[in-house]
Amino acid sequence: MKESTIPSTAEPQTANQISINAPRKAFLARLQRWEWMLVALVVAAIVINSRLTPYFLNAQNLSRTSADFMELGLMMLPMVFIIITGNIDLSVASNLGMCASLMAVLWNLHFDIWVAAAAGLALGTLGGALNGFLIARVKLPALVATLGTYAFFRGIAYVLLGDQAGVGYPPAFTYLGQGMIPGTLIPFSVGLFVVLAVIFGLVLHRTTFGRYIYAIGNNENASIYAGVPVARIKLIIFTVSGFMSALAGLVLAARFGSTRPDIGTGLELTVITAAVLGGVDINGGSGTMVGAALSLLLIGLVRFGMGLKNVQDQVQTIAIGSLLILSILIASIARTISAGGVKLSRRTVGLAIVFIIIFAAFFFFFYWSRAPVIKSVFG
Amino acid sequence: MKHGSFYFVLGIATVLGLILGACAPTPTAAPAATSAPAATSAPAATSTTAPAATATTAPAATSAPAATATTAPAATATTAPASSGGSNLTFVLVPKNLGNPYFDAANTGAQKAAKELGVTVLYQGPTTADATAQITLLNSLIAQKVSGLAISADDADALVPTGKAAITAGIPVVTWDSNISKGGTQLFVNQADTQGIGDSQVQMALDLTGPSGGEIAILSATAQAPNQNAWIAVMKTDLAMSKYSMLKLDTIVYGNDDDTTSYNQALALMKTYPNLKVIVAPTSVGIAAAARAVKDQNMIGKIFVTGLGTPNSLRDYVKTNIIPEFALWNVPDLGYLTIYALDALATGKIKGQPGDTFTAGTLGSYTIAADGSIVLGKPLVFNKDNIDNFNY
Fold first, then answer.
1. Contacts of residue B120 in chain A, CB cutoff 8 Å?
2. Does the ipTM exceed 0.95?
3. CATH code where residue B164 lies
4. CATH architecture assigned to A2-309
5. Residue A257: how many CA atoms within 13 Å on its side-chain side?
6. Would you say residue A138 has pLDDT above 80?
7. What is the pLDDT of residues A331-349, one digit of tens each?
């Protein structure tokens, strides 16, 4: 079935995306699909959360919690580029740890904090360039190359910092992660993310470079024959990813006010989740920056809302996972229906029943997991 | 366009489904939420449930903007009695991670204290022992304006800004088991009194050799381990006293907290010192490995093992008399004392200053030391008579 649907839907898309004449129309057309779904989900999350808990619509609370997700956002921006080209970068969180650790070591050696931070950024860029080199020049699969550097970078973080910690950063530096934009309740890191998201979005959707990224994702060989500098573009996006990981490392270290070598462990999976939930096709070729940003917002709102309702962390993870699977399922069903007409309605009904069962199972689990809490309260 | 409208319709359908899904549990979720402040006692429950229930169900009928308008006063309404009334405080016990028997045992003590004090204690932690996840959790707890936080920190330094934010927001913060660095907490409930643990190790060794004494050896973690070295220093001082002069310390070996290394070190000890009577292993890995070595060499009754460990991992060895007794702090009591300390802070009985004194239920009176901590007390000695009362 997959065999039969892919050519029929992929062809017109490819035509739209590669054509330089109508990128604007393609962009708008895409915006009408997945992004609206995300907007609807975000609105639903806001309505539900504000109904379920009085603490949700509180500027100070939203401000404090939004800063928790900005490191993810910073790493997600280049990840969108990388996934659209059909690659993946598993090393982002390890790279973050390596750069933050280098900065901590230099700070402990009494270097100026900004010198240490610059060294961290340089190391991160270098780490990204190493990924790019392995993938674009040595032609290793991105999954394998970044799985290698994932362990390698984290190992270096432990070698650099060992059982030490970098502490006592000056307020001028911790402002990066803890400060607010003067006169507002907006954390500085949120402002930084918004500015960078706009820049990354413009590069992806408004430049030749961005068109090339889609072209590589749709058909890498065709792009090479069409004269797209595929290797150079891959090198650039992985290097940018390294730089952004380092930047995220600085923001995270500033938010913590300290660094340990295990800083940010496991964030890479959340970064990839956010990108994929945002409609970026894991096989490459499609996705938008707006969608990715919306999905980050959605994940943040859902997690914060569940946190306010004291939903256990395990259940939150399950909820985010279900959200991801559901979103991909819905997209794939919708594509099947729009491609094959109403012929497949019985199948759709079957899958709809599966959804309902998944939903029911989740809510059942939700209560079951809360039961011990309720019981312990009533003794 | 055809695709677009289709997705849009599907999106709307999903949202409706989500809203329906969220509406359905609300009636059940409401008692869960109100049960928090109502947990104290039966008469209080009925009075607090009524306003809370109306507050949550009223906006259900209205539209989104109205919902925000009506929930805003509800927030102040629920927090106001929480800060003034002594009986409907909600504390949160935050372990390093969930699903860890050690922390679950502390929670049983905390719930006991909660019942005695008439407060609610929620048990919330991250899935993995990770500072990032713990900070996200703490931020959502601060946002709810809970009445107090009892934290076992995943990272002493990274939690300082969050701890400060909680204190600034007027939420008392107590740390237990694992401290937050300066400024991030108001009080640390310390489980391990170095002197008490060192003393208990030597006393148990004497119990096992009998009054005539004999040769003992120490199997420690790593040569650099700060806790173990502090305890060993105390043990050496004790051994120099006349009270323990019949005990002869043969050697100190290091198993690096690795099971195989510890096992081999224990075997080597038995071969090198034929008159060895007791192996003291003040580390949970070492004590289990040494016990296994004694069992495998069939030296049960000739060589005893003692030290520090957890009841669940050593239960079988205690019952087979390989480890007739061992020590650890009483983990449920740690949770119990933590909640009493937090309650004393939240109700203003203490300010968290050195010298402040409060009474912690059945544990008696505690005074805050100069370093801003209180020490739980002497370690608990486990033997075959009491070990089945503990599950962690």
1. 377
2. no
3. 3.40.50.2300
4. Orthogonal Bundle (1.10)
5. 24
6. yes
7. 777 666 666 555 556 777 7
